[in-house]
Amino acid sequence: MAERPEDLNLPNAVITRIIKEALPDGVNVSKEARRAISQAASVFVLYATSCANNFAMKAKRKTLNATDVMSAMEEMEFERFLQPLRESLEAYKKGQKGKKEASEQKRKDAKEKKNDKSREEEEEEEERMEEDQEAENEVEEEEVEN
Amino acid sequence: MSGDNVEDQVNHASNSKGISLPMTRVKLIMKSSPDVSSINQEALLLTTKATELFVQHLALSSFNNGSGKDNKTLLYSDLANTVEETETFQFLTDILPKKIFARDYLKLIEENPIEEADN
């Protein structure tokens, strides 16, 4: 797949937002500075990927995994990122677990519904009969009172 | 506003995953790296998040390191200076070079003529 140069850039709006949120209120960022940071970010991705890939290859793996990226950060001397990255990973895993459990629960419910449908119908029938019986009883009581 | 608080704020401001940058785009960049076969989802997430942290770090470091005269604007020169002065940003020296006026460059060449191999 041929990549056009602009495809290897990150969206300007998001980059700008991240920069603004990092700086004190009221600070402006020149257009040139914004563009430069965006380019730096792309280069960062490449550098981090290359570094992480070295770790994967050392471990004779073809797929980059989380530990490769963490090792790369250490190698690049961005230890300050390690803690927030670990937290992000935890949050992501919890989210994935929640999603998995939710879809498993859905499947479980659907299966039970299918099996119990006939049983439910019988129960409903019984309930209706009971209600009718109660109604009849009430009527009888009234008649007695009268 | 200290540097630590900022990261918390960014997490609250963005979506529940705490990520603003599009992972699909980051993946595209990662795949353009030679020798990379495949990337698992967690690795993609971490790289995306790390890139956000990097953007914050570069911006804030450059701003704090700044000219001091105008503390209201982050300029390209702040970035270039910080890159030159900070070891962890050395990998950026080629893409964020310091700028020099053409006349100053020409002057430099005059004073230090480049010696030719064959003379």
Automatic annotation (TrEMBL), chain A:
Biased composition regions of type Basic and acidic residues, renumbered to the chain: 89-120
Sequence ranges assigned to domain Transcription factor CBF/NF-Y/archaeal histone in this UniProt record: 9-73
Pfam families linked: CBFD_NFYB_HMF
Ranges annotated as biased composition (Acidic residues): 121-146
Region called Disordered, residue ranges: 89-146
Subcellular location: Nucleus
Residues forming coiled coils: none
GO biological process: DNA damage response; heterochromatin formation; leading strand elongation
InterPro entries: CBFA_NFYB_domain, DNA_Pol-Epsilon_Subunit, Histone-fold
GO function term, MF aspect, one: chromatin DNA binding
Subunit structure as annotated in this protein's UniProt entry: Component of the DNA polymerase epsilon complex consisting of four subunits: the catalytic subunit POLE and the accessory subunits POLE2, POLE3 and POLE4. Interaction with POLE4 is a prerequisite for further binding with POLE and POLE2. Heterodimer with CHRAC1; binds to DNA. Component of the CHRAC ISWI chromatin remodeling complex at least composed of SMARCA5/SNF2H, BAZ1A/ACF1, CHRAC1 and POLE3; the complex preferentially binds DNA through the CHRAC1-POLE3 heterodimer and possesses ATP-dependent nucleosome-remodeling activity.
Entry function: Accessory component of the DNA polymerase epsilon complex. Participates in DNA repair and in chromosomal DNA replication. Forms a complex with CHRAC1 and binds naked DNA, which is then incorporated into chromatin, aided by the nucleosome-remodeling activity of ISWI/SNF2H and ACF1. Does not enhance nucleosome sliding activity of the ACF-5 ISWI chromatin remodeling complex.
Identification of the protein by name: DNA polymerase epsilon subunit 3
Provenance organism: Coregonus suidteri
UniProtKB/TrEMBL annotation, chain B:
Chief location of this protein within or outside the cell: nucleus
Keywords: Acetylation, Coiled coil, DNA-binding, Nucleotidyltransferase, Nucleus, Phosphoprotein, Transferase
InterPro entries per record: CBFA_NFYB_domain (IPR003958), Histone-fold (IPR009072), Transcr_DNA_Rep_Reg (IPR050568)
Location of the Transcription factor CBF/NF-Y/archaeal histone domain: 20-80
GO CC list: CHRAC
One GO BP: DNA-templated DNA replication
Assembly: Heterodimer with POLE3; binds to DNA. Component of the CHRAC ISWI chromatin remodeling complex at least composed of SMARCA5/SNF2H, BAZ1A/ACF1, CHRAC1 and POLE3; the complex preferentially binds DNA through the CHRAC1-POLE3 heterodimer and possesses ATP-dependent nucleosome-remodeling activity. Within the complex, the heterodimer with POLE3 interacts with SMARCA5/SNF2H; the interaction is direct and enhances nucleosome sliding activity by the SMARCA5/SNF2H and BAZ1A/ACF1 interaction. Within the complex, the heterodimer with POLE3 interacts with BAZ1A/ACF1; the interactions are direct.
Compartmental location: Nucleus
Gene3D superfamilies: Histone, subunit A
Protein role: Forms a complex with DNA polymerase epsilon subunit POLE3 and binds naked DNA, which is then incorporated into chromatin, aided by the nucleosome remodeling activity of ISWI/SNF2H and ACF1. Does not enhance nucleosome sliding activity of the ACF-5 ISWI chromatin remodeling complex.
GO molecular function: DNA binding; nucleotidyltransferase activity; protein heterodimerization activity
Pfam family for this entry, one: CBFD_NFYB_HMF
Protein name: Chromatin accessibility complex protein 1
Superkingdom of origin: Eukaryota
